[in-house]
Every structure is written in structure tokens, then in C-alpha cells.
Amino acid sequence: MTLTYYLVLAAILFTIGAVGVLVRRNAIVVFMCVELMLNSVNLTLVTFARATGTIDGQIMAFFVMVVAAAEVVVGLAIIMSIYRTRRSASVDDANLLKY
Amino acid sequence: MDVLPAEGLLAASWLLIALPLAGAAVLLLGGRRTDRWGHLLGTATVVAAFVLALLCTFQLAGLDEPSVGVDLFTFISAGDLDVEMGLLYDPLSAVFVLLITGVGSLIHIYSIGYMAHDPARRRFFAYLNLFVAAMLLLVLGNSFVALYVGWEGVGLASYLLIAFWYTRPAAATAAKKAFIMNRVGDVGLALAIFLMFAQLGTTSFEGVFGTVGTLAGGTITAMGLLLLLGACGKSGQFPLQAWLPDAMEGPTPVSALIHAATMVTAGVYLIARSAPIYDLTETARTVVMAIGALTLLIGAIAGCAYDDIKKVLAYSTVSQIGYMFLAVGLGPAGYVAGLAHLLAHGFFKAGLFLGAGSVMHAMNDQVDMRRYGGLWKKLPVTFVTFGLGYLALIGFPFLAGYFTKDAIIEATFDRDDWLGWTFGGIAVLAAGLTAFYMTRLMLMTFFGRARWEDGVHPHESPAVMTVPMVVLAVGSVFSGALLVSIFPLSDWMEPVFGEPEEAAHVIAPATIGIALTAIMLLGVLAAWLFVGRREVPVTAPVRVSPITRAARHGLYADAVNESLFMRPGQWLTRALVWVDNRGVDGAVNGLAATLGGSSSRLGRAQTGFVRTYALGMLGGAVLVAGALLAVTAG
After folding, report:
1. What is the tens place of the pLDDT at every residue in B492-548?
2. Residue A79 forms part of a structural domain
């Protein structure tokens, strides 16, 4: 069993996440796609940790999870307040900060 | 000649400058509080300076080496430049100090009466005192830098006094003109001083005159010519003569003191003082002579055509200073003759101006001689004193001008080369013209039918004005004989200019005397034929010969200055303004506009859409990753 499959899976997950961020308008979906990308990176980290026989990658994955958890808290709060003021969760509607 | 430290009263000669300076300070700072007694204080300081000058001169005459110095303070000490401020009291400065304080005192006294009804009389006396202080520093300073300080000081005082009635546009313009044309000359003097410092490392008279002989001939000539430029500016000599007639816009006592007797002769003083430099450069001396000869002719020609009494006297001053320049340009043979003429001129020209002021006083400030006439009965004292000054100026035998002008013309002919004959001939011709224009002035003012304007009732001036005129008239009569024969100036000046050498006369002095008298009488006769015999029209005739028209415009000196210097200057400034607006401002404004425009165009990229930013980040990350891969693989 080679590690290549894990890496390919991680790449596929990352691509799905990235495309989702770019094409979807719903803030919740965009947010979940971001989570998907983070977890694909976690998978890559763990895979390489296994490949090199060290635990650096695994530790790094835990860090990412902690940061992601914190990010979820802040991000969901922002999405909530945007929805309350505009009655919409579309990221294209929140476009006031521009030239 | 060694300079000894001053002792006794001479050590206090700095008081000569300090007294009038203190007077000016009190009057200017005291303001209205000094209005009531300001004129008395102003006069008292100058009279006190005159008394002190007399005592100092007597003490100086008793010394074996009549040349003393007074060290005052270090003026500038910076690196190699070390200027000690001090005074030099020698026979040359002594006669100037006596002339300035003596004539100055008389004119201060006269001004008490002349300016009696002017609300700004205190300011007038403050400026006059300032002038006297600056002029005394000019002639007493022991270095070219000290001289320069005084030189600029008199320029300032002259400017302030010409523009004394500054609400008159003509006076304000005349003052500006005088100031600017003086600056042209002052640049020459400043450059000469720079040259002295660069080449000799010193600016004191002692240092410069002691070492100037070591310089190359060309440098000395340049120094002489630059000093001459300065002298021309201050003394109203060609090509900078046009400011002096306009300076007559100032009050008449100013014209008498500054623009006739003292300040305008500073150029002659400068050249006489710089004798050790001019003795080494024949070229510069020849230029001095040529300028003197040319100017004395220009002044005499222009003087024949003007109807303004003060302008005629002003051109006469230009012409007489031309005689002095001619004399000092002759070198050792002429210094004393030039200075004797300067002193005699100080008497009779100041007297003539004060007389003109008295006439104007009587005629409600009218200056047009065509509106005078027949005044001799109404103004007897003015007529007699003015007449004596007139006779002295035209060289009537045995009056001042006869001796001093003769001496100059004799010395010119004594050169016995083509230059001497040319310049001597011009001087003789101009003597005839002098007689013509002064006789014309006399005839138009004092004789003939009264052509007064309505409502003019001439009356003789008060005693405070006539007494100075009488004193100056007495000086005009006797100063020439005194300076040339009885108490020769050449003996007094011997420590400065050396032993007077017995010149081999080309023409016998008696012959010159008779010839000059004959030419003078010819001029008087011509004036009688042209002016005295006929009725003087009240308005100047329009149909006149081109020569008269040119003379009425001062031989087009203003036109030449305007077309050669003023207009090109205006074009230059206009071109520079254009370059500044379009070029310099254009580049700076253009750069700012370009940056502003491009940044607002770049700002359009900030759409506010989160997904656009996300695409940008992705694209950037892909690019970075690609670049890293390419580098690692390559």
C-alpha cells in the first residue's frame, strides 16, 4: 500500500474545496469548502509524517485543527451578523468595502 | 607713509560718526515725542561734529606725520578674512570731513526754515543725520570694507531722502531708479574688494596699498576698472548718470547736500584714495579720464535744454564731477586739482541749490524757469548769493571756479599727447557751455518780464535760510583763491600724494586763463543772444532742432537704458516665468496628476467581491508554487 493514494485523495479534496470557494455564493457553503481544504491539508501532513517516520506532521495537524475550531467560532459569528443585517448569506451582497 | 596711533582729541574722532548716528537713532526711535525739538537736535549733532572736526584738523596739522589711525573693534573675523574696523585720519579724509560737516551744518540750519511747514520734518532730520554719519564713515574708514559700509549707508540715506515725499509717484520712482543704478556701481566696488581679498588677503588701505605692486598688471587694471564702476554709480558718471537728475525729486536741501556737495563726490574720493592702485595702471587712468571728459560734455549739453531749475543744476553737477574725474584720471598731476575743484564745487553748488530752494520757496514750489522772471527785485539776498555762486561756477576771474577749473584744464594740456589735447579741448568747450546754460538759468530766473502764475507773491526767505546761503556765497568767492594760492591744497595733501612736481607747462597758465575767460564770455554772450534778448515763452517751443530735442531727453540716456537693459530684463523675466509655470510647475504637477490618476485606476481592482479576492489569492499561490517547482526542477 503506497502513500500516493492518500496524497491524490488530499489533492482531490483540496480542489473540490477551492472550486467551491470560488464558485459558490452561499457563505455557509464557502465556509464548509474552506474547512474541506484545511482537512485535505491535514491529510497531507499526516501522510508525510507517516512517510518520514516522524511526528512533526501529526503535531502540525493538531495545530491546524485547533486554529480551524477557533476560526469556525469567529467565522460563523460574522456570517450570523451579516445575515441579520442583510437578510442574505450571499458573499456577493457583502461588497461595500471597495474603491 | 606710516600711520601712527591717534592721541588726544584725534583718538576721539569716532565721535564724529557717533554723534550724528546717535541723533538719527534718537529721532527715529523717539517718534512723535521728538517732533518739537527734533530739528534742533539733528542740527546740533552735526554742528558739534563740525567743531570736533575743526579741532581734530588743527591737531593733525601740528603733527610731523599727519596720518593717524584709530583702532575700534574687530568687524569680521572668519578664517583668513580678518577685518579690523578703524578710522584713518589723514589730510585727505580731513578735508572731506570738514566739507561734509561744514556744508552739512549749513544745510541742516537752512532745512530748519525750508522744512518748517512739513509735518514730517523730524523724519527729514533723522535721515539727514543718518546720511552724515554714513558719509563720515565712508571717508574715515581705514579699509575698503569700512568704506563700503559707509558707501551703502549713504546710498540708503539718499534713497530715503529722494523718496522723502513718498506719496508722489515721481519721487518714489526716482528713488528706486537711484537705488538700482547705484547697485550696478556697487557691484563693481564689491567685486574690486573681493579681488583685493583674493589676491592680497587684506582689505585695509595700508595692506592693499603696501602690497598692490606685487600683482600682475592685468589684475591691477581690473581692480582699477571695477573701482571706477563703483565710482561711476555713486557719482553719476557715464554710463550711470541718468539717476542724478531724477534724484531732484527729493527736497532741495537734500539735492544741495547729497546730490551736489558730498555724496556724489564719493566717487572722486574713492579714486583719489586708491591713488596707489591707479598709479600702477595707465589703462584704468585713461578710462577714468575718458569717462570724465565724456560725462562733463554730456552734462553740459543736457544742462542747456532743461527748463526745470533743479535739473539744470543737477546736469551741471554731473558735468562738474566729470571735471573732477578727468583730473583724478590724470594721476599725480591731477589729484590735487580735482580735489580743489571738489571742495570749491561743494561751496558754490550747495549755495546754488539752496538759492534754487529759496526761489522755489518764494514761487510755491514751482520749478519751471519759464514761470519765473524778474525775481531779482523781490529776492535780493537770494539773487546776490545765487549770482556769486553762478559766477564761481562759470569761472569768472578770481572766483572759486576760475582757479580750480583752470588748474584741471592746465594739467590736462600738460600731458602733451593726443589724449591731453582731446580731453583738454572737450573741457574748454564744456566750460563755454557751462557759461551758456548757467547764464540762461540766471536770465530766465532773475531777469526779464515776470511770468509768474496767478496768485504767486514772491517774498524773501527767512534769515535761517539766507544766512547759510550767504556763508556759502562767501565760500564760493574765496575758496578757490584760498585753496590754490593762499593756503595751497597741494602742500596740505603732500603726505598723501607726495611732493607736487613742477609740471612743464605746454601752454602758459596765463594764456589758458585768458582763453577760458574769453570762452566763458562767449557762452554768456550766446545766452544773452538766445535767451536774454528775446521774450521767454511760457511753454517750451515744440519745433526745435534734433540736438535740442535730444538734450531735453538727457541725450536719450533713459531710452538707451530702457531698451538695452530694462526691456531685455523684462523679456527675460517673462520667459523665466513661462518656463517656471509650464516647465517646472508642469513637471511637478504632471507627476502628481499621473500618480493620482493611475492609483485611482488601480483602485478599481478593489471590487469588494470576496470571491474575486479568493481567485487572486489562488492564482498567486499557484504562481508561487509553479515558480518554486520550476526553480527546484531547473
Report:
1. 888 888 776 666 777 777 888 888 889 899 998 988 888 877 777 777 787 788 888
2. yes
Query: B223 exposed, middle or buried (CB, 10 Å; 0-12, 13-18, 19+)?
Result: buried
- Inter-axis angle of helices B463-481 and B400-414, to 10 degrees? 40
Instruction: Write down the mean pLDDT value for chain B.
Output: 88
Cβ contacts of residue A67 below 8 Å, gap of 6+? none
Of A21, A25, A99, the CB nearest to B606: A99
Would you call B342 exposed, middle or buried from its count of C-beta atoms within 10 A (0-12, 13-18, 19+)?
Answer: buried
- What pLDDT does A46 receive? 94
Q: How far A14 CA sits from the closest chain B CA (Å)?
A: 12
Whether the Cβ atoms of residue B405 and residue B395 lie closer than 8 Å to each other = yes
**How many CB atoms within 10 Å of residue B592?**
10
Phi, psi of B500 (to 5 degrees): -70, 125
Q: What distance in Å separates the CA atoms of residue B531 and residue B436, rounded to the nearest whole number? A: 10
Q: Which residue of B has its CA nearest to A24?
A: B611
CA dist B229 and B182 (Å) reads: 10
* Positions in chain B short of pLDDT 70: 1-2, 500-503
In this structure, what C-alpha cell is assigned to residue B505?
607747462
| B49-to-B21, B77, B96, B152 alpha-carbon distances in Å | 11, 30, 13, 21
Chain B residues with beta carbon closer than 8 angstroms to that of A25 = 611
In a domain, residue A73? The reply is yes
Exposure string (b/e) for B356-370, b if CB count within 10 Å is 16 or more?
bbbbbbbbeebbbbe
- Contact A92/B609, CB-based, under 8 Å? yes
Asked if residue B142 lies in contact with residue B69, where contact means CB atoms within 8 angstroms, the answer is: yes
Question: What pTM value is reported for the model?
Answer: 0.79
- Cβ <8 Å between A22 and B614: yes
How far is residue B65 from each of residues B3, B6, B69, B437, B494, measured CA to CA in Å? 8, 11, 11, 45, 11
Cβ atoms of B234 and B266 within 8 Å: the answer is yes
Write down the pLDDT at residue B500: 67
Mean of pLDDT values over A29-37? 93
The angle that helices B335-362 and B266-273 make with each other, rounded to 10 degrees, is 170
Average pLDDT of span A30-36: 93
Identify the CATH number of the domain in which residue A34 sits.
1.10.287.3510
Residue in A18, A22, A96 nearest the CB of B608 = A96
pLDDT at B326: 92
Lowest-confidence region among A31-45, A56-70, B143-157, B397-411: B397-411
Confidence of residue A93 (pLDDT cuts 50, 70, 90): confident
Q: Where are the alpha helices (DSSP H) in A1-99?
A: 4-23, 27-52, 56-86
Question: What is the tally of structural domains in chain A?
Answer: 1
| Local structure of residue B262 (DSSP, 8 states) | S
Residues whose CB is less than 8 angstroms from the CB of residue B48 and which lie 6 or more positions away in sequence, other chains included: B19
Closest CA to B254 of B123, B107, B105, B121: B107
Q: Do B259 and B314 meet the contact criterion of CB atoms below 8 Å apart?
A: yes
The complex scores an ipTM of 0.86
A7 touches chain B (CB under 8 A): no
Structure confidence at residue B216 (pLDDT): 86
In a domain, A93, yes or no: no
DSSP-derived pairing of the beta strands B81-89 and B68-78:
antiparallel
Q: What is the pLDDT of residue B147?
A: 93
Distance (Å) from the C-alpha of residue B593 to the closest C-alpha of chain A?
18
Which three-class secondary structure state does DSSP give residue A88? coil
Q: Do A22 and B611 touch (CB under 8 A)?
A: yes
Please give the residue range of the domain that contains residue A29: 3-86
* A97, part of any domain: no
What are the backbone dihedrals phi and psi of residue B143, each rounded to the nearest 5 degrees, phi first?
A: -145, 165
Closest-CA residue of B relative to A92 is B609
Q: Treating both helix axes as pointing N-terminal to C-terminal, what angle do B144-162 and B169-200 enclose, rounded to 10 degrees?
A: 170
